[in-house]
From TrEMBL, chains A, B:
Keywords: FAD, Flavoprotein, Oxidoreductase. This is Phenol 2-monooxygenase. Belongs to the PheA/TfdB FAD monooxygenase family. It holds the Pfam family FAD_binding_3. Residues 85-197 form the FAD-binding domain. Residues 61-83 are annotated as: Disordered.
Length: 473, 473
C-alpha cells in the first residue's frame, strides 16, 4: 500500500468517567495548550470513549529499518519516522494520565473500564483494488487510516456493498463482466478522498492549537479545525460519495458540477447524479401510508426506474403520456421485460415505481395504467408501485418530493437508481426518456428472453413475495 | 361470568385477496344493504384480514339447554338465543361466499389463505377479579367480548400490567398488601366500559344500515356508526383508561371532570389524573438529546416524581426553591430515602426527575442542586435526571412540554407517576408540594430504613446500571 506512518500515537479508553467536565455527554474535541488533544465520544449507557494523544511512548528500535510496511515512493517520509510504537507499553493508566493533563483544570477519574487500545496513525491506500475483474480486495486490505473519522468499518462495508450487487448481477448472468471494473474506479477514489480528509483532520487534531492574537501564529487554526470537523460529518453520513461517469452512471446532459461538486440534471435539479438518492417521504396511493423512498429502495439487488409523471390531475396530458408507456413496458424488446428471465417475477430485476405529483384524493388507483399495479402469476395485484410525492402526513408533516428533488410538476422526469441507490441516470418523462432508460440498460445488461426459469406453483403459498430480498427469481 | 351470548356469528379470513375493490388496502367497514357487513383490515405484506358476518350457520341443538356459560341474571336473554354455532360447519369457502355477496358489485377471490376462524359474539364479565387480595384472575378469565375492537389481547395484558407492579411492590416488602385491592377496582371498570362499548359497536356493525331519506328509518345510522368507530380508537390507544380515586390515585384538589371525563389539576391543566401520562418530548440537559417522556418512564416497577420548576432562568426564585428541596430529599424521614432499602441505588424505588422550563443554553448543568445529578456508590454521576421541557429538536421540531401539560412556567408543578405511568398526583412546586408527595407515599409504602441490602462491590463492573430494569436493588 502507498502512504505513510505518522509519529502521532493515540490511546483509546472506553470507560465510565468521574469528572466535573460539564460537556462529558457531548461529542467534543479538546485541544490543550501544551499537553495534546482528546476527543470525547459519549457512548451507550454511561460509557464514554476517549481518543487521547499520547506524548511519550517507547518505540521499537528494530522498526526503524523495517520497510515492508512502506511503499517505494515514500522512502523520504519513512526516513523521518521514529519507528513503530511498542504497544505493550501502553496501559490504561498511561492513557488516563495523559487525558488528565489535557483536561486540566477539570478532573477525570476512571471506573468500569470496558476496553482500551493504542495505535499509531497510518494512512495508506492500495494502488489497485482488483485484478482481471476476478480478484477483488476491500476494506482494510486496501486502505487504512485513523479511526477518528468513524469511517473504518463504514467505508469497508461500503466497498463490499458496491462490489456485492455487481457480482450478483454478473454471477446470475444478468450483466456483462465489464461492470466489475467500476468497483475499483468507484471505490479507489473514495478511499483516496477519505485518506486526504483524514490526513488533514488528523494533523489538525494532533497539532497544538493556534493562540489567537499571539505574537507568532503557529499551530492549528481552531476555526479551520471546526470547519473540517463539520466536513467529516458528510463522510460519516455517506452522502458525499460521488461516483464518476461510467457504464453504470450517466452524467451527460447534466449541468456542470456546482460548488459542492454535485452534478445535477435540469429535470431533477436537486438530485446529484452518481450520489445516493436522498430519501424523501412519499405516500402510497393504495393505502395512504407514508414511506421513505430509501425504505422502498431496499438493497435487494434490483435496479429501480422511478417515473415522476408530474401532476397528472392538473395536466391530463401527463396521464396520457403515462398510458403511452404501457405498450413500451409490455414489449419483450425493451428493458422492462428483456432483462428479466422468463417466469421470474416481472419486477425482480428492474422495479418500476411511479411517483405522481397530484394530491392523492384527486386521482384514483385505477386511473393509472396497468404497469403501476402489475399482477403476478396468481393474479395478485402489487399495490406498492404507485405513490404520490405530495401531501400531508401525520408524523412527517407536509411533504413534496417534487420540490425536494427539483422536479417540475408539469415536466416530470425519470430517475434510474442502481441497486445501491446511487443515481444512475436522469432523463425526461416521455417515450424518448423511456428509450434513454432502455439505452442505459442495453449497454451492460444481458438479454434473458431465452432464459426460462421453472414455472411457479400456482397452488403454493408465497404471501411474502413482495418483501423478501430477490433478484431474478 | 355475567353477560350474554349473541346470535351474531362472524367468520374471519386472513388471506391475499384478488379484488377490484379500490380500498382493499385501507381499514374500512362495508355495510351491504341485505347481506350483512364486512370489516377489512390490511395486514403485513399483502395479507388482508376480513371479519365477515355470516348469515346461515348450523346451530348445535344441545346448546339451547346449556346453562354453564350463562350467569343467573341473564336467563331471559339465554332463552332467546338460537343456541351455539357448530364451528365445524364454518369453512373458508363459506366465509368467502358471504364476503363476495357483501362486496358486490366488486369482485373478491381468495389466494394464500393464512388462517381462518368462526365465532359467536359473547360479552361477559366476571363480578370479581380477586379474592382476599391473594388470588387474582385476568384477561379472558374475567372478560370476553368480540375481537373487532382489537382489545382482547391488549386489555388482558393491561390487566396483568396493572397487577404486576403492585405485586412486585408487595412481594418485595416495599408496599402494604392493601394496594392489591386497587387491581379489581381499577380493572373491573375498564372491562365493563369496554364491554359496553363493544356491545354498542357490535350491534351497529351487525345491523342493517339505515337508508337515509327512506320512508321507514330503521337499522344502524351510519353517522353514529362512524362516531363509535372513532371512539374505538381511543380504546385501542389505551389513553382513555382512567383509574378512580384510591390509595394510589389522588384526585382531590383537581377541577371537576371535563366533557371528556378527564380530571385535571389547575397546576397541570392538561394532565388527566388517573390516566396514563401523555408522552411529550423533553431534552436532556447533559447531552441535548431529545427523549420521549414515555421512554424515560420505563416500566421497571419504580415510581416517578416529576419536578417541573418552571423557567428557572427568568424566575431565579424558582431555582432557589429547587435548591431548598435538597435537604428535604436528603432526609431519611422523607420519601426519597425512607422507602428505599439501605445500600440500594437511591433511585431504585422512587425516581426523581427534574424537567425545567428554560432554554437549555440559558442554564448550566451545575446550576442545579445535587439531587438532579446524584452520585452512586462509586461516585459515578447519573446524567439522566435533568431535562428541559422547551427547545427545538431536529426531528420533532419545537417542543414545549409545559404548554402540552398545561404547566405555568412561573408556578411550576410536581407530578407523581405510578410505575404504570398513570398519573397519581399533581401538586404545587414548593416544599408544601413536596410534603404532599411525601404524604402520598407514606399512605401505602413501608419504611425501609432498617432493611439493609449487601454493600455493593466497588471493584465490580456494572456500566449498565442506569438502563436495566430494577426495583429496590
Amino acid at each position: 500500500m502507498e502512504g505513510e506512518q505518522t509519529d502521532f500515537v493515540w490511546g483509546v479508553l472506553d470507560m465510565v468517567p468521574i469528572t466535573n467536565f460539564p460537556d462529558i455527554r457531548s461529542r467534543c474535541a479538546i485541544h490543550s495548550k501544551e499537553s495534546g488533544s482528546v476527543m470525547v465520544i459519549p457512548r451507550e449507557n454511561d460509557l464514554v470513549r476517549f481518543y487521547i494523544q499520547l506524548k511519550e511512548v517507547e518505540r521499537d528500535p528494530n522498526t526503524k529499518t523495517e520497510s515492508r510496511e512502506f511503499s517505494g515512493n515514500v522512502d523520504d517520509k519513512k526516513a523521518k519516522t521514529k519507528g513503530r510504537i511498542d504497544r505493550s507499553k501502553i496501559t490504561p493508566e498511561l492513557i488516563l494520565k495523559q487525558a488528565q493533563e489535557i483536561l486540566q483544570p477539570y478532573t477525570l477519574e476512571m471506573t468500569d473500564l470496558d476496553w482500551f487500545t493504542g495505535y499509531q496513525i497510518g494512512q495508506r491506500v492500495s494502488p489497485n483494488f482488483s485484478r482481471h475483474n476476478r480478484v477483488f480486495i476491500a476494506g482494510d486490505a486496501c486502505h487504512t487510516h485513523s479511526p477518528k473519522a468513524g469511517q473504518g468499518m463504514n467505508v469497508s462495508m461500503q466497498d463490499t456493498y458496491n462490489l456485492g450487487f455487481k457480482l450478483a448481477l454478473v454471477c446470475k448472468g444478468l450483466a456483462k463482466q465489464d461492470i466489475l471494473s467500476t468497483y475499483e474506479s468507484e471505490r479507489l477514489k473514495v478511499a483516496r478522498d477519505l485518506i486526504a480528509f483524514d490526513h488533514k483532520f488528523s494533523r489538525l487534531f494532533s497539532s497544538k492549537p493556534m493562540i489567537p492574537n499571539a505574537d507568532v501564529l503557529d499551530g492549528a487554526d481552531m476555526d479551520e479545525f471546526h470547519q473540517v470537523y463539520i466536513e467529516g460529518n458528510k463522510f460519516a453520513s455517506g452522502t458525499i460519495v460521488d461516483y464518476e461517469d461510467s457504464v453504470l452512471v450517466k452524467k451527460e446532459g447534466a449541468n456542470a458540477p456546482d460548488d459542492n461538486g454535485c452534478t445535477m440534471h435540469p429535470l431533477a435539479s436537486k438530485v446529484p447524479i452518481g450520489r445516493r438518492l436522498y430519501s424523501e417521504v412519499i405516500i402510497s396511493q393504495a393505502d395512504a401510508r407514508p414511506v421513505h423512498v430509501a425504505d422502498r429502495l431496499a438493497s435487494d439487488g434490483r435496479f429501480r426506474v422511478l417515473i415522476f409523471p408530474g401532476d397528472v390531475s392538473t395536466h391530463p396530458e401527463n396521464m396520457e403520456t403515462l398510458h403511452k408507456f404501457q405498450p413500451f413496458i409490455d414489449s419483450k424488446d425493451n428493458f422492462a421485460k428483456k432483462f428479466t428471465p422468463v417466469n421470474a417475477f416481472s419486477d425482480s430485476v428492474i422495479d418500476i415505481i411511479t411517483i405522481h405529483g397530484s394530491c392523492r384524493y384527486n386521482v384514483e388507483f385505477y386511473d393509472f395504467p396497468q404497469f403501476t399495479r402489475p399482477k403476478d402469476y396468481k393474479g395478485r395485484c402489487d399495490y406498492w408501485k404507485l405513490y404520490t410525492g405530495i401531501g400531508n402526513t401525520y408524523h412527517e408533516g407536509d411533504i413534496d418530493a417534487y420540490e425536494s428533488y427539483g422536479i417540475d410538476k408539469k415536466k416530470g422526469a425519470i430517475i434510474v437508481a442502481r441497486p445501491d441507490s446511487h443515481v444512475a441516470l436522469v432523463t425526461e418523462f416521455s417515450t424518448d426518456g423511456l428509450n434513454a432508460v432502455d439505452g442505459y440498460f442495453k449497454e451492460f445488461m444481458l438479454p434473458q428472453n431465452d432464459v426460462v426459469l421453472p414455472e411457479k406453483d400456482v397452488k403454493g403459498h408465497d404471501k411474502k413475495r413482495f418483501v423478501q430480498p430477490r433478484l431474478a427469481v
